Amino acid sequence: MACGGMIAYLTFKVRWRQRTLLEFLASLPYAVPGTVVALAMILTYSQPLPLTGWRLYNTLWIILLAYIIRYLIFPVRSTGAVLSQIAGNLEEAARLSGARWGQAMRHVVLPLIRPGLIAGWFLVLIPTMHELTLSILLWSAGNETLGVAVFNLQEAGDIPATAALAMITIILVLAVNYLARQVGRIKTGF
User: How far apart are CA 35 and CA 159, in angstroms?
Assistant: First the structure.
């Protein structure tokens, strides 16, 4: 959400030529199939990272990075929709009143875009909970995602355990949906 919020701010509030390119690059990983993104992650991160020597392949970090890259467009669009409705005069008034850029962001812009951030968080959470195309290629022992666990149980023929885990997933999704709606009502007053 932080990356998506920053990209949305740069795309919708900062006037520069490459802003459409930035939004295009954020939407590109969602436009290509998940297997292509996963193979790109494998090819890119199977070698140790320069300067640090860390290897992301076969870790949970490569799955997290793949999810961030794949679903970045959701927070960009949801936050951008809210940012496009906020007049630039509010941020300018805060700056003219003596607030620094960070203070204006924290006290003026962030409270106004909170509903878009909550919506973007929920839009990212739901597909990642049952996502399989990225995870099936990037998981390793001990780093299974929920989608991979359900798939492995189903492939092993353990139908009762598959059904139980799928039901827990549904209950968890409904609980998160309820929580997001309650947080949205408290903060926005709707």
Answer: 26
Q: With CA atoms as reference, report the closest residue to 133 among 36, 57, 40, 26.
A: 36
Q: Tokens for 137? A: 């290629």
Question: The tokens 């309650």 sit on which residue?
Answer: 182
Angle between helices 19-31 and 60-70 (to 10 degrees): 120
pLDDT tens digits for 79-126? 888 888 888 788 788 888 888 888 888 888 888 888 788 888 888 888
Residues 6+ apart with CB under 8 A from 73: 4, 26, 27, 29, 30
pTM: 0.80
Ordered structural domains, the chain, with CATH: 2-188 (1.10.3720.10)
Which residue do the tokens 């991979």 mark?
148
CA 152 to mean position of chain CA atoms: 25
